[in-house]
Design brief:
Blueprint lengths: L32 H34 L5 H15 L4 H26 L1 E2 L2 E2 L8 H8 L4 H10 L3 H10 L6 H4 L12 H15 L3 H8 L8 H13 L1 H16 L6 H12 L4 E4 L5 E4 L11 H15 L14 H19 L2 H15 L4 H5 L2 H5 L8 H14 L3 H17 L4 H7 L4 H21 L3 H10 L4 H15 L4 H16 L7 H16 L4 H14 L9 E7 L4 E7 L6 H10 L1 H9 L4 H22 L2
Antiparallel strand pairs: 1-2, 3-4, 5-6
Helix pairs in contact: 1-2, 1-29, 2-3, 2-5, 2-29, 3-5, 5-6, 5-8, 8-9, 8-10, 10-11, 10-12, 11-13, 12-13, 12-14, 13-14, 13-15, 14-15, 18-19, 19-20, 19-21, 20-21, 21-22, 21-23, 22-23, 23-24, 23-25, 24-25, 25-26, 26-28, 27-28, 27-29, 28-29
Amino acid sequence: MKYLRLFVIVGFTLILPQSAFPQAPSQKAKAPVKSVSGKEKSEAERIQKERQAQARSLLISLASDARSFRDQTLRARSLARIADALWEIDVEQGRTLFRKAWEAAEIANREANERLNIRDGLVSIKPEELNSATLSSMVSNPDIRKEVLRLVALHDRVLSEEFLEKLKEPASEEIKSEKPRTGLWDVPEALRQRLSVAESLLRTGNTERALQLAEPALSNVSGATLDFLTLLRMKDSAAADQRYAAMLASTSHNMLADGNTVSLLSSYIFTPNTYVIFNPDGTATGTFDPTTSPANVSPQLRLAFFQAAIAILLRPQQPPDQDQSTTGIAGKYMVIKRLLPLFAQYAPPEMVASMRAQFETLNSLVSDNVRRGESESVQKGITPEEPFAAQETSLLDEVEHAETSDERDQLYFKLASLALKNDDLKARDYVSKIEESEFRKQAQAWIDWGLAISAVKNQKAELALELNRIGELTNIQRVWVLTQTAKLLVKADRDKASSLLETAGAEARRISGSDLDRPRALFAIANAFRVVEPARVSEATFDAVKAANSAEGFVGEGGMITQTIATKKVTSVIPQDVPDFDIAEIFSALANDDYENAVQLARGFQGEAPRTNATIAIARSVLNRARVGGR
């Protein structure tokens, strides 16, 4: 089963009260137009300067506090965000804070590496030390330098290049003595960081700066570079195609390029954001994004890909003991098997014939297991999936012929997952047929949460409430369903929407006071009150702040609900981003309505992280209003 990733993005339109802006003079005023215009401009400038000074003072005070944070990661993150917020009104102060943030980020990175015994990018852990806590620490060990770089790159090209240069640490003698890698998709860490920052710039609309930053990395064939070009194509197709063509030209003459290089290159045109790489035994690994369509490129660019693919895939096959490729014979065979339908559909006949001949040659060299294997990976993104009804019929037939209850359970879960993908409530019926009780319980929770997300996403309020009533959902999941549904119903039935938020409050109070989900739930309710009953937002936020002080480790950002299920064949995850669990939006809105109250609520946080995040949100809100008022 492939990963199911569903996101619900809830947007808000913030309507500022008229008092937030300078009032236009009455049409009946007798004063000369020139005189009134001058007063209006003077008043707007006065208000703008006053607000900027207010925000600057708040941020400078916070920066002073942040310099003393013992947590170096929090120190780096806070200083970088303060610098970002200050940049437009105090460039020099912003640059100074960015340098302080980088210093803290380097210390944080060094401490994390020492803690996890990371040397030259490799983790060295003794087998007896490998446990769930260690693995969790490895996964939750972000390189904070990336976050600092992303913000610096938005403002200062010279400074970002200076920091990127510092990432090019020399390899140790052990690493230097290793045999050179033959794969071209292993991008060095410094280039990976560069691409990550460039992608962030692209997403914010700074295409020119993003290209300047990414250019040194674009000669590498990798998932990261092709992801960047795919995103660039959405902003500037000509620029993206030009760089992809250059990548094809350089790669076709590179003797390190092999079948996996071709497989990666094919993604840009035919399967954007879907990558499949084959191992020497013919098995596959990869990532799959079912939401993207083939790129509408020119016939000339498509032909250039086939020419590069032919140049690489028709090279003479080396003897097994001399083969330096990442695919070996079996992997190369699977790459060609995957790409043959594309050749048949788009390539000139002589190229198709050459590729078929190479395929037949390799076919005689691989085992029967390789010939029969990995049909799903071969077809990913290339062969259209069968309609739901056809897949359902086929799986039901397999159920009929299953020899054990375990096989039937796996097939029923596969049927339930297929129905979930198609937003079909039949998914619950299939789960109920699973015999093994623990597996059935896990599957029910997985399916019900997926259906609830889909119901909210498709604005099916009554279905979402029914799933909340009958579904196997956790308290925090129920809070999310109730708050999102309340916002869906507010225009049609405000009283019912208010009642749903009361029910959500009861669910939140069922969560342990020390559980991080409790303040998250209460902030979700406060955010929903912004839409349903604005007069109750401040009170609801106060309750959420109190709850945050009882839940050690609450930071007020990165809100998410993750549902996981592990079958005998695969572990699948639904990571649901929940912006309403975070504090930035609520404090920004509060600052618009009552600045002093927002500041007092922010000071109520005992934790350094949520207090910092709330304060930055308040300052940003003030600065944004000042800019609007000054226009």
